[in-house]
């Protein structure tokens, strides 16, 4: 019987639990013994690695977060601790690792493989959707649905009170969440780091819209833009003449129960990751592309600068 382990590293996303459930089921189906590594790379170092059974994953498919927890590990950057991690895996005869995480986690994994030969397959998981080489990262759809529900609620109060609402989404330097939310939730303004903007250019348009009967504005801004959301709200009050409020959605975007799409993507990512390892692909990341799932090298994923889909960027012109 061969042994295979899974861990979550970096920011957690909704969709990790369905992935864990299918990891256990699919491993057993393929004659592998599944193991959980708790607390990311910290768990590898501290030998917090346990065999996983059906019992461990019962009742988690509908839960956000991750049952085996996630972590960032400073120690894993130090070879001394990676060697301890290798010893711990050797003791359990584990030489295959599936990692749900971001490009930082994959970088660490690649170094680990090159030093110690622990085969791995990375599954992109971050709500920011900013990993190069993949169109989709696990957790994005659940985050977008949380944002959608929040914006729909804010619209109700904005419409009742004649207010401008500035809603800030996560994404670090990537405007994906803000842009998709603006396109699907009907925002009047969308500001993202990928596109220069000048608020002045909206002033005449927005004032005219008020004269023509507009009673409220929704502005969706990504956390990575050059200005603070409060400044955008002040601009609405001072230059457009409408009372304004800021809502920073924050970590609410990372939680909540996984959507159908994320549950299905979790299922598919896991199938592909385990298949890759069984087929002798020793160091790959499973990416979702316009042509379906593709195995990519760490180098391609980690050392290529992420760029937002140009087609989506064009849509920004119409917001
Ligand atoms: P997120 O997008 O949520 O930030 P991430 O995977 O990019 O996810 P990071 O914090 O960049 O998150 O990396 C996660 C962990 O990967 C780090 O805490 C560290 O343990 C490991 N790691 C990152 N870079 C390296 C490296 N160069 N060498 C060894 N380990 C690394």
Question: Which terms would index this structure?
Answer:
alpha/beta; eight-stranded mixed β-sheet; single chain; Rossmann fold; 2 domains; binds adenosine-5'-triphosphate; 319 residues
Structure characterization notes:
This protein is an alpha/beta fold. It has two domains: 2-139 and 258-305, Rossmann fold (3-Layer(aba) Sandwich); 141-254, Phosphofructokinase domain (Rossmann fold), CATH 3.40.50.460. The chain is built from eleven helices and twelve strands. The strands form two sheets. Strands 1, 2, 3, 4, 5, 6, 11 and 12 form an eight-stranded mixed sheet that branches. The protein has a four-stranded parallel sheet with strand order 8-9-7-10, with helices on both faces. α4 links the parallel β5 and β6 (119-124). α1 packs parallel to α9 (260-278) and α5 (140-161) packs across α6. Bound molecules: adenosine-5'-triphosphate.
Question: Can you summarize this structure?
Answer:
This protein is α/β, with parallel strands linked by helices and 319 residues long. The chain has helices spanning 16-29, 40-45, 79-91, 103-116, 140-161, 176-185, 200-211, 229-240, 260-278, 298-302, 310-316, and strands at residues 2-9, 32-37, 49-51, 70-71, 94-101, 119-124, 164-169, 189-191, 217-222, 244-248, 283-289, 292-296. The longest helix has 22 residues, at 140-161.
């Amino acid at each position: 019987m061969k042994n295979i382990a899974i861990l979550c590293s970096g920011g957690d996303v909704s969709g990790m639990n369905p992935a864990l459930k299918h990891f256990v089921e699919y491993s057993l189906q393929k004659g592998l013994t599944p193991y959980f590594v708790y607390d990311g790379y910290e768990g590898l170092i501290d030998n917090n690695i346990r065999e996983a059974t059906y019992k461990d994953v019962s009742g988690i498919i509908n839960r956000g977060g991750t049952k085996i927890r996630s972590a960032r590990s400073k120690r894993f950057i130090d070879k001394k601790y990676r060697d301890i991690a290798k010893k711990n895996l050797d003791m359990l005869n584990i030489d295959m690792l599936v990692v749900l995480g971001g490009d930082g986690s994959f970088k660490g994994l690649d170094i680990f493989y090159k030093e110690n030969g622990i085969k791995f397959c990375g599954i992109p998981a971050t709500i920011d959707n900013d990993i190069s080489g993949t169109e989709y990262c696990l957790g994005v759809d659940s985050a977008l649905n949380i944002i959608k529900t929040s914006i729909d609620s804010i619209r109700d109060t904005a419409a009742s009170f004649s207010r401008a609402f500035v809603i800030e989404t996560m994404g670090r330097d990537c405007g994906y969440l803000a842009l998709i939310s603006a396109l699907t939730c009907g925002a009047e303004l969308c500001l993202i780091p990928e596109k220069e903007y000048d608020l002045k250019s909206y002033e005449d348009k927005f004032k005219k819209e008020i004269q023509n009967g507009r009673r409220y504005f929704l502005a969706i801004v990504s956390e990575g833009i050059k200005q603070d959301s409060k400044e955008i709200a002040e601009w609405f009050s001072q230059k457009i003449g409408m009372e304004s409020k800021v809502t920073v959605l924050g970590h609410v975007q990372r939680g909540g129960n996984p959507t159908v799409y994320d549950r299905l993507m979790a299922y598919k990512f896991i199938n592909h990751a385990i298949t890759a390892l069984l087929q002798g692909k020793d160091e790959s990341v499973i990416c979702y592309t316009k042509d379906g799932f593709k195995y990519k090298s760490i180098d391609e994923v980690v050392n290529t600068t992420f760029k937002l889909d140009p087609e989506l960027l064009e849509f920004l012109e119409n917001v």
